[in-house]
Each structure stands twice: as structure tokens, then as C-alpha cells.
Design a protein that fits this description.
single chain, mainly beta, Porin, eight-stranded antiparallel barrel, 10% helix, 63% strand
Amino acid sequence: MRLRVMFSVALMLVASASLAFAEPATSVNADIAGGDSDSMAYSLNIAQKYAPWFSNGAFECGPVAEIGGHAWIDNTSHEDTVWGAHISPGIYFTLFTDASIRPFMSVKVGGALNSRDHMDDRNFGSHLLFRTRGSVGASFGENYRHTLQGSYTHYSTWGITRTNDGYGTYGVSYGYSF
């Protein structure tokens, strides 16, 4: 219980501190992915890209934060569905090109709270998991408002609990920036 409280407070502090530096670069992203244990993973996220820490004519990098919900559905029985919510601060890198696309990558590390601590034969060890995500994609369209990206996302307790089967997904997402 104490670990959950400390983790929740740390996430709130990171999220609230980052909001002070926000610029209008909010996006909504829909993900579809294949997951461990013959499952599908779906998520809907709101991401906020903040003012860059560094920027020149070739690239920029800075902070980003993501909050959203997810569902993991077992393809075999359709009975082991896990619902959850996640929040993940991270870092983005964007390359500036003269073309109509802008390649980018991002890395995020945060947490997730799930409805169940298991799925089929996978025992996650806790309802509260760490979430790590790596993405590579491109922005395109008018003012680069559209994004397509490929991502790998992993959920686990990072060895804090004895049981730590974890859950990983590989997927694609589409996003629209406001």
C-alpha cells in the first residue's frame, strides 16, 4: 500500500511540474497492438508535447507526457479482459526535414493501474505496474497535425514483487494534434 501511495504522489508531482512549461501541442492517439498470451491491446491516449529543451535547424528534443486508458483482450477465451489507466512522462526527439514529413522517436516511463493482476496464465504480481514505451513514427499533413507510429510497450513490476510475468505489446497508432 505504501509503495502505491509513493508512486501515485511521484506521478502527480511530475505531471503537475511539467504543466507549467506546456505549449499548445496536445494530441489524441488511438493504438492497436498484438500482446503477449495471444491477446490484443487497445488504448486511447492524450499526449502533451512541451516546449523543447534543445532545438536547432536539424532537430529538437524535449519533454512529453501521456495519459490514457487501455484494454487487453484474450483472443482465445475472450474472458480474460484487463482494463486499465496509465500515465507516462518521457522525452521526444524530432528531426526537421524539408519534406512534408517529420520523423520522431519518443521514450516514456510511467505507471499503470489495471483491473486485474493476471491474464490467462500470466501473473503480473500486482494491479499497479510500471509502463515503459518506445515509439518511432512520423508527423505529416498541414502543420504536421497527423502522426503514425510504431510502438513497443511493456508493463511489469520491475521485480518488486515475486511474481513478475509482465505484459508486452507491439503495435501501431494514429494521432491528431490540436
